[in-house]
């Protein structure tokens, strides 16, 4: 009986506990406009375990690249959440004048990777996204260190 309860407890804690990570994608223009100005924004990703911690910044531009879709330029940035079963935006600046979900930005799944694209005036705007990713397995089963993450991002940039 006791071992049954123990088994049940182990089973429950395995199914209820999911592993998470947080990201912040910070994009800024020289004038800090949120309406789409004359300059391209530069972005960098911040890696976090918990949503509200300061996190570890990734070098500017690393993991980001551009593509054309129907004559429109998009900038994609890798969120470093491979094999996640859920990816969600937990926060974006309220009342943004150029970045609109599903119109000028969107999270996209490509294979096992999750990436976020921006287009149109959003490309030339300051914008910050806070993003959560949920996994079945602990994140450190995929990457042992930030150097491995940076190497993954550099390799990805070379593929496109
Ligand atoms: C965005 O910035 C680029 C680079 O400075 C510029 O060529 C382009 O015209 C700008 N786009 C808009 C919509 O202002």
UniProtKB/TrEMBL annotation:
InterPro entries: DUF7808
Entry keyword set: Signal
Keyword Signal: yes
A Pfam family reported for this protein in Swiss-Prot or TrEMBL: DUF7808
DUF7808 domain span: 18-152
Residues annotated as signal peptide: 1-18
Protein's name in the database: DUF7808 domain-containing protein
């Amino acid at each position: 009986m006791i071992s049954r309860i123990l088994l049940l407890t182990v089973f429950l804690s395995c199914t209820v506990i999911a592993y998470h990570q947080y990201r912040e994608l910070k994009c800024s223009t020289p004038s800090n406009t949120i309406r789409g100005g004359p300059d391209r924004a530069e972005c960098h990703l911040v890696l976090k375990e918990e949503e509200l911690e300061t996190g570890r910044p990734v070098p500017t531009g690393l993991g980001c690249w551009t593509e054309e879709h129907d004559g429109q330029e998009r900038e994609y940035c890798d969120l470093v959440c491979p094999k996640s079963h859920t990816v969600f935006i937990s926060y974006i600046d309220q009342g943004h004048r150029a970045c609109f979900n599903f119109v000028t930005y969107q999270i996209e799944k490509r294979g096992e990777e999750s990436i976020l694209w921006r287009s149109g005036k959003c490309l030339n705007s300051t914008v910050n996204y806070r993003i959560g990713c949920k996994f079945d397995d602990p994140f450190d089963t995929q990457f042992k260190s930030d150097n491995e993450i940076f190497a993954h991002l550099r390799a990805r940039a070379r593929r496109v």
